[in-house]
Amino acid sequence: MTATLGDFYTGRPTEDIARDLLGHELIYTTPAGTLSGWIVETEAYLGEKDTAAHAFNGRYTAANAALYDAPGTIYIYVLRGYYMLDVATQAAGTPQGILIRGLEPHQGINLMRQHRPKPDPDISNGPGKLTAALGLQSKALNRTMLGAQNLTITPTATRIPAAVNATARVGVSDGSWQNRPLRYVVAGNPYVSASRKRDWDRINHGWRV
Protein backbone atom coordinates (compact mmCIF):
# COMPACT_ATOMS: atom_id res chain seq x y z
CA MET A 1 0.00 0.00 0.00
CA THR A 2 1.31 3.44 -0.86
CA ALA A 3 2.14 5.94 1.88
CA THR A 4 -0.67 8.20 0.69
CA LEU A 5 -3.22 5.40 0.86
CA GLY A 6 -1.91 4.31 4.26
CA ASP A 7 -2.20 7.84 5.60
CA PHE A 8 -5.90 7.89 4.73
CA TYR A 9 -6.59 5.01 7.15
CA THR A 10 -4.29 6.16 9.93
CA GLY A 11 -4.83 8.36 12.96
CA ARG A 12 -8.50 9.28 12.50
CA PRO A 13 -11.76 8.01 13.97
CA THR A 14 -13.35 5.19 11.98
CA GLU A 15 -16.55 7.23 11.63
CA ASP A 16 -14.63 10.03 9.87
CA ILE A 17 -12.93 7.57 7.54
CA ALA A 18 -16.28 5.95 6.68
CA ARG A 19 -17.81 9.29 5.79
CA ASP A 20 -14.75 10.39 3.82
CA LEU A 21 -14.67 7.18 1.74
CA LEU A 22 -17.77 8.33 -0.14
CA GLY A 23 -16.68 9.32 -3.63
CA HIS A 24 -13.47 7.28 -3.56
CA GLU A 25 -13.13 4.73 -6.34
CA LEU A 26 -12.93 1.01 -5.57
CA ILE A 27 -10.85 -0.65 -8.30
CA TYR A 28 -10.55 -4.41 -8.95
CA THR A 29 -8.18 -5.57 -11.69
CA THR A 30 -8.86 -9.01 -13.19
CA PRO A 31 -7.57 -10.97 -16.22
CA ALA A 32 -10.85 -10.12 -17.96
CA GLY A 33 -10.46 -6.39 -17.34
CA THR A 34 -10.63 -3.64 -14.74
CA LEU A 35 -13.87 -3.08 -12.82
CA SER A 36 -14.48 -0.10 -10.60
CA GLY A 37 -17.07 2.10 -9.02
CA TRP A 38 -17.51 5.07 -6.73
CA ILE A 39 -18.31 4.25 -3.12
CA VAL A 40 -21.75 5.63 -2.23
CA GLU A 41 -22.53 3.87 1.06
CA THR A 42 -20.44 2.73 4.03
CA GLU A 43 -20.97 1.51 7.59
CA ALA A 44 -18.57 2.00 10.48
CA TYR A 45 -18.05 -0.76 13.07
CA LEU A 46 -16.24 0.25 16.24
CA GLY A 47 -14.74 -2.88 17.69
CA GLU A 48 -14.98 -4.30 21.18
CA LYS A 49 -17.58 -1.80 22.46
CA ASP A 50 -19.86 -2.03 19.41
CA THR A 51 -22.62 -4.62 19.93
CA ALA A 52 -22.98 -5.13 16.15
CA ALA A 53 -19.26 -5.53 15.43
CA HIS A 54 -17.61 -8.87 14.75
CA ALA A 55 -15.03 -8.01 17.42
CA PHE A 56 -17.58 -7.11 20.11
CA ASN A 57 -16.24 -7.92 23.59
CA GLY A 58 -12.82 -8.63 22.08
CA ARG A 59 -13.92 -11.63 20.03
CA TYR A 60 -10.99 -12.89 17.98
CA THR A 61 -11.20 -15.83 15.57
CA ALA A 62 -9.50 -16.96 12.39
CA ALA A 63 -12.50 -15.56 10.53
CA ASN A 64 -12.28 -11.99 11.85
CA ALA A 65 -8.50 -11.75 12.36
CA ALA A 66 -8.16 -9.20 9.54
CA LEU A 67 -9.87 -6.60 11.73
CA TYR A 68 -6.93 -6.82 14.15
CA ASP A 69 -4.37 -6.19 11.40
CA ALA A 70 -2.91 -2.88 10.21
CA PRO A 71 -5.14 -0.14 8.83
CA GLY A 72 -5.95 -0.69 5.17
CA THR A 73 -6.16 -4.46 5.56
CA ILE A 74 -8.90 -6.12 3.50
CA TYR A 75 -11.44 -8.14 5.50
CA ILE A 76 -13.67 -10.43 3.42
CA TYR A 77 -16.35 -12.56 5.05
CA VAL A 78 -19.46 -14.45 4.00
CA LEU A 79 -22.92 -13.54 5.30
CA ARG A 80 -25.97 -15.52 4.22
CA GLY A 81 -24.06 -16.80 1.20
CA TYR A 82 -22.83 -13.36 0.07
CA TYR A 83 -19.26 -12.09 0.15
CA MET A 84 -18.83 -8.85 2.11
CA LEU A 85 -15.96 -6.39 1.75
CA ASP A 86 -14.61 -4.59 4.82
CA VAL A 87 -11.48 -2.54 5.45
CA ALA A 88 -9.66 -2.37 8.80
CA THR A 89 -9.16 1.22 9.92
CA GLN A 90 -7.18 1.44 13.14
CA ALA A 91 -3.76 0.47 14.45
CA ALA A 92 -3.04 -3.26 14.66
CA GLY A 93 -4.83 -4.72 17.66
CA THR A 94 -7.73 -2.23 17.52
CA PRO A 95 -10.41 -4.15 15.58
CA GLN A 96 -12.45 -1.46 13.88
CA GLY A 97 -13.53 -1.50 10.26
CA ILE A 98 -15.78 -0.21 7.52
CA LEU A 99 -18.22 -2.23 5.43
CA ILE A 100 -18.51 -1.09 1.80
CA ARG A 101 -22.27 -1.20 1.17
CA GLY A 102 -22.96 0.52 -2.16
CA LEU A 103 -21.08 1.17 -5.38
CA GLU A 104 -21.95 3.24 -8.45
CA PRO A 105 -20.30 1.47 -11.42
CA HIS A 106 -17.65 3.26 -13.42
CA GLN A 107 -15.21 1.01 -15.28
CA GLY A 108 -16.08 -2.46 -16.58
CA ILE A 109 -19.85 -2.11 -16.46
CA ASN A 110 -20.30 -4.78 -19.17
CA LEU A 111 -18.27 -7.23 -17.10
CA MET A 112 -20.34 -6.37 -14.05
CA ARG A 113 -23.51 -7.14 -15.99
CA GLN A 114 -22.07 -10.51 -16.96
CA HIS A 115 -21.27 -11.30 -13.34
CA ARG A 116 -24.61 -10.01 -12.06
CA PRO A 117 -27.24 -9.69 -14.81
CA LYS A 118 -29.52 -7.23 -13.05
CA PRO A 119 -30.81 -3.81 -14.10
CA ASP A 120 -29.26 -0.66 -12.69
CA PRO A 121 -29.11 0.22 -9.87
CA ASP A 122 -29.82 -3.29 -8.53
CA ILE A 123 -26.51 -4.45 -9.95
CA SER A 124 -24.47 -3.02 -7.04
CA ASN A 125 -26.78 -1.34 -4.49
CA GLY A 126 -25.86 -3.55 -1.56
CA PRO A 127 -22.77 -5.13 0.00
CA GLY A 128 -23.30 -8.63 -1.42
CA LYS A 129 -24.44 -7.26 -4.75
CA LEU A 130 -21.36 -5.14 -5.35
CA THR A 131 -18.92 -7.98 -4.69
CA ALA A 132 -20.93 -10.19 -7.04
CA ALA A 133 -20.87 -7.50 -9.72
CA LEU A 134 -17.12 -7.14 -9.35
CA GLY A 135 -16.63 -10.91 -9.47
CA LEU A 136 -15.04 -10.78 -6.04
CA GLN A 137 -16.29 -14.18 -4.93
CA SER A 138 -13.60 -15.66 -2.74
CA LYS A 139 -11.57 -14.88 0.36
CA ALA A 140 -8.28 -14.94 -1.55
CA LEU A 141 -7.58 -11.27 -0.73
CA ASN A 142 -8.58 -11.50 2.94
CA ARG A 143 -5.82 -10.19 5.23
CA THR A 144 -3.96 -8.55 2.34
CA MET A 145 -3.42 -4.80 2.09
CA LEU A 146 -5.34 -2.52 -0.23
CA GLY A 147 -3.14 -1.90 -3.26
CA ALA A 148 -0.82 -4.83 -2.58
CA GLN A 149 -2.44 -7.04 -5.18
CA ASN A 150 -5.36 -6.35 -7.51
CA LEU A 151 -7.86 -4.59 -5.23
CA THR A 152 -7.50 -1.01 -4.10
CA ILE A 153 -9.38 2.15 -3.18
CA THR A 154 -8.12 5.51 -4.39
CA PRO A 155 -6.53 7.55 -1.57
CA THR A 156 -8.53 10.62 -2.58
CA ALA A 157 -12.10 11.10 -3.71
CA THR A 158 -12.60 11.27 -7.46
CA ARG A 159 -16.19 12.49 -7.03
CA ILE A 160 -17.54 14.73 -4.28
CA PRO A 161 -20.97 14.20 -2.68
CA ALA A 162 -23.25 17.22 -2.74
CA ALA A 163 -24.59 16.05 0.64
CA VAL A 164 -23.95 13.13 2.98
CA ASN A 165 -26.59 11.55 5.20
CA ALA A 166 -25.79 9.60 8.37
CA THR A 167 -28.36 6.98 9.41
CA ALA A 168 -28.71 3.88 11.54
CA ARG A 169 -26.95 0.84 10.10
CA VAL A 170 -28.91 -1.71 8.08
CA GLY A 171 -29.84 -5.02 9.70
CA VAL A 172 -28.69 -4.08 13.22
CA SER A 173 -31.69 -4.91 15.38
CA ASP A 174 -30.41 -5.54 18.88
CA GLY A 175 -28.04 -4.09 21.40
CA SER A 176 -27.54 -0.53 22.53
CA TRP A 177 -25.89 0.48 19.24
CA GLN A 178 -28.71 -0.36 16.86
CA ASN A 179 -29.84 3.24 16.26
CA ARG A 180 -26.48 4.97 16.17
CA PRO A 181 -25.90 6.94 12.94
CA LEU A 182 -22.92 4.96 11.67
CA ARG A 183 -24.09 4.42 8.07
CA TYR A 184 -23.04 7.09 5.60
CA VAL A 185 -24.58 7.59 2.17
CA VAL A 186 -24.34 9.93 -0.79
CA ALA A 187 -27.72 11.63 -0.51
CA GLY A 188 -29.88 10.99 -3.57
CA ASN A 189 -27.63 8.37 -5.15
CA PRO A 190 -29.65 5.50 -6.70
CA TYR A 191 -26.99 2.92 -5.80
CA VAL A 192 -27.55 3.36 -2.05
CA SER A 193 -29.16 0.17 -0.76
CA ALA A 194 -32.87 0.26 0.05
CA SER A 195 -33.16 3.86 -1.15
CA ARG A 196 -36.53 5.15 -2.31
CA LYS A 197 -36.96 6.08 -5.97
CA ARG A 198 -38.65 9.32 -5.04
CA ASP A 199 -35.45 10.39 -3.24
CA TRP A 200 -33.12 9.73 -6.19
CA ASP A 201 -31.24 12.52 -7.89
CA ARG A 202 -31.71 11.20 -11.43
CA ILE A 203 -29.52 13.86 -13.03
CA ASN A 204 -26.34 14.07 -10.93
CA HIS A 205 -26.79 11.03 -8.63
CA GLY A 206 -26.02 13.19 -5.62
CA TRP A 207 -22.58 14.27 -6.79
CA ARG A 208 -21.36 17.84 -6.76
CA VAL A 209 -20.97 19.28 -10.23
Topology:
Blueprint: H1 3-8, H2 14-20, E1 25-30, E2 33-45, E3 74-79, E4 82-88, E5 97-105, H3 109-115, H4 127-134, E6 151-153, E7 164-167, E8 183-186
Antiparallel strand pairs: 1-2, 1-6, 2-5, 2-8, 3-4, 4-5, 7-8
List its traits.
209 residues; 8-stranded antiparallel beta sheet; 13% helix
Task: Walk me through this protein's architecture.
It is an enzyme of class 3 (hydrolase). The structure is a single chain. With about 210 residues, this protein is α+β, with helices and mostly antiparallel strands. Helices cover about 15% and strands about 25% of the residues. The chain is built from 4 helices and 8 strands; from the N terminus they run ααβββββααβββ. The chain has helices at about 5-10, 15-20, 110-115, 125-135, and strands at about 25-30, 35-45, 75-80, 80-90, 95-105, 150-155, 165, 185. It starts with a helix and ends in a 23-residue tail after the last strand.
